[in-house]
Design brief:
By secondary structure, this protein is of the alpha+beta class. The chain has 16 helices and 20 strands. The longest helix has 24 residues. The chain is elongated.
Length: 403
């Protein structure tokens, strides 16, 4: 029997490619009607494949797992990923933020080219096959349209994703199957997620869906510049996602996370104070702020939502709040809404090849593993890298067994 890869996302397909490159027969099983569903949706607004920053800045994005990813990305890192895409006929470019995108900005052309290459390498894909665990004698079970399918592979690579966006196939149901086999699973939590603040109905009606452009969000000694979207329940966006792990953990420990928001990062507090200290005359507070400061309607609405009127009437207090507006974050949005998943299979249960110590011949890759990284290309790069490493590990395992 061939090596079985379960999961047709970036990690699973990369594992399949690594195996096929070494002459190992590979079959990929995926629960969805077609592979790469989450990959395609993630690239709908422009596929952020990786990031161009130096490795000295890139590696720390993986937080507590930075040491592990230093080794993984030295094997297959951002530059390797761009060269790999070029080999598929997909040129990439570096955007103004340092993020790397395909020239066409879409995921579909890359995925189509990749699947063509995999088929040319002999990789077989079975869609609509949902993994249901093992039989008593250790064979893999799948629920398929024609009934149950049972196979006995030479090795298995699990790349089933986390538990976010379950409608695209990553529902985390694998955790129960692995836990029943004694595999240690760190609790799965939302990562790269939004947070609730508890807006008033008036604020939701007027400002939900609007953006705060070029702001800086700060928490626990870190400051991230970017854009924030005001949602019906709170906030989301790139700079929120970059701090989501720390914010989430603070809420879990303390019941609340008090972040601060600089609404005018390119203006000093002194400059704002000078503008607000000018005579207001008969103008309303809202009209005066609009005239004196380059703040959009959403930013002005946020100030009125979170601050008492007397604070906004005081130039000294108002200037200070505009530079460090307290945001009391009450809870992370549900895991199903998150972009990615923290938690999963603990690395302590794996060997250096990402093989489960308790299940020889079974390898794990991608978001199933207990790590997290921000959006911006880091999450996707990590998934590719772990997929390739697990695939290489499975190929070495097969060779070692002399199969």
């Amino acid at each position: 029997m061939p090596v079985i890869v379960i999961g047709g996302g970036p990690a699973g397909l990369m594992a399949a490619e690594a195996l096929a490159e070494r002459g190992v027969a590979v079959t990929v099983y995926d629960a969805m009607p077609s592979p790469g569903r989450k990959f395609l949706l993630a690239g709908k607004g422009g596929l952020n494949l990786t990031h161009s920053e130096a490795m000295g800045s890139f590696i720390p994005r993986y937080g507590a797992r930075a040491g592990l990813f230093h080794a993984l990305l030295s094997e297959f890192g951002p530059a390797d990923l761009r060269n790999w895409a070029k080999g598929l006929g997909i040129d990439t470019f570096v955007g103004s933020s340092g993020r790397v995108f395909p020239d066409e900005m879409k995921a579909a052309p890359l995925l189509r080219a990749w699947l063509r290459r995999l088929r040319g390498m002999g990789v077989v894909l079975h869609a609509r096959h949902r993994w249901k665990g093992w039989t008593e004698d250790g064979r893999l079970r799948f629920r398929a349209p024609a009934g149950e399918v049972v196979v006995a592979p030479e090795a298995t690579v699990l790349a089933l994703g986390g538990a976010s966006w379950p409608h695209l196939g990553s529902d985390g149901s694998w955790a129960e199957l692995l836990a029943a086999r004694g595999v240690a699973i760190a609790p799965m939590k939302p990562a790269n997620c939004g947070f609730d603040l508890g807006w008033s109905p008036h604020f939701v009606e007027r400002y939900a869906g609007q953006h705060l452009e070029t702001v800086e969000l700060a928490f626990d000694g870190r400051t991230v510049r970017g854009e924030i979207t005001l949602t019906e329940s709170g906030i989301e966006g790139g700079c929120v996602y970059a701090l989501s792990g720390a914010l989430r953990d603070a809420i879990a420990a303390q019941g609340i996370a008090m972040a601060t928001l600089d609404l005018m990062p390119d203006w000093s507090e002194e400059r704002i104070l000078a503008a607000l200290s000018k005579p207001r005359g008969s103008r309303s507070q809202a009209t005066f702020f609009k005239r004196m400061l380059p703040l959009g309607p959403a930013a002005l609405g946020l100030l009125r939502e979170l601050l008492p009127r007397d604070v906004l009437d005081n130039p000294v207090l108002a200037a200070a709040e505009i530079k460090a507006l307290p945001l009391p974050l009450l809870q992370a949005r549900p895991l199903a809404e998150a972009i990615s998943t923290a938690g999963g299979v603990r690395f302590e249960d794996l060997d250096e090849h990402l093989m489960l110590k308790s299940l020889p011949g079974v390898f794990v890759a991608g978001e199933m593993l207990d790590w997290e990284a921000p959006t911006g290309g880091y999450l996707l790069t990590g998934s590719f890298a772990t997929g390739r490493h697990a695939g290489l590990g499975a190929a070495a395992w097969v060779a070692k067994q002399g199969i």
